[in-house]
Every structure is written in structure tokens, then in C-alpha cells.
User: Fold Tail assembly chaperone from Mycobacterium palustre.
Amino acid sequence: MPDKQPVEITDEVKHAHVVNAADARAQASEGQYSFLRSEFRRAKPTAEHPEGEVFEIPHKDLLDNDQQERWEDLQDDLLHKYQREPDVYTPDGKTLIAKGALVVPHRDKDGNRLPPWPYRLAIVLWGEDGAKRAKEGGILLSEIEVIWAKQDQEMKERLASDPKSAGSGSGVATASH
Assistant:
């Protein structure tokens, strides 16, 4: 068996993947895959962005590497750091029927209030600084989830109208929270 040498992945290769994510989102805006297209929102003008900074809301299945990492961090927080209502068990207490719902407004295990869900989604898409700029720029952060729901609905309609897709998955994994 040959020795396995560690392979170093150069910054150029890492960057190419991010560029490819952007290219994939651009291609998704065309033709039969238009349900995967990004939507864009423009913030109020600032000295730095006299025409208003533009924020991209990509399809949640076309997140770049950094966005995907932040999404998975948020999912991990939901499982391990958010307060929940008590779990529901059978009367004998032996079988879990349903996991307790998240406490709303969201709180951490110590009872501290967490940022609103739309703001957390903005952090996933644009990072901490970008989410802050978007909020300050008047971007309606709750639109992120609405846009994702619309994209999901468009994908379902597309699959329902395509006889080749009947009974099969889209080939695109869905993200959930």
C-alpha cells in the first residue's frame, strides 16, 4: 500500500470553490432552475455606498463555504444552546413523543435573550458585520425566511409539473431549522 502524503490545499483552490459557489448561483438564475436564483436587497445609501449596499439572499442550498459553516453553527446552537419547553413523553414517562419546542423569544440555557431569528439568518448570510450593516441600512431581515419559503414552493411546483421528476427528489438537499 503506498504511503499517503498529506495534501495541502492552496488558498487558490479554496477560493476557486467560493467563486464556483457564486457561479452556481448565477447559473441558477437562468432557465429551468430559476427557482434557485438569488434575490437582492439594497440598503439605504451611506457615505461608503452612495447608491446603497446590495445584499444577496442566495437559495439556502447554494450557500458558499463560509455561509454553510455559519448555518451549521446556527443549527448546532439550536440543538445545544437554546432553551426548550419540556419534552413530551407517554404517560408512563418511558417514550419520547415530541421534543420540546424552542422558547420564543429565543433564550440561551442561562435565560439570556438571543438575537431575533431573522437577525441570526442575516449573520449566516453576511456575517456579523454584514448583518449589522443590513439592519442599519433598513433591510427587512425577516424577508430572508420568506424568500427561502418562496424558493422552496417554486421548487415543489417545478417538480410537480415535470413528469420526469414525479416521485423523485430534486437532487438538491434542503436545509432546515
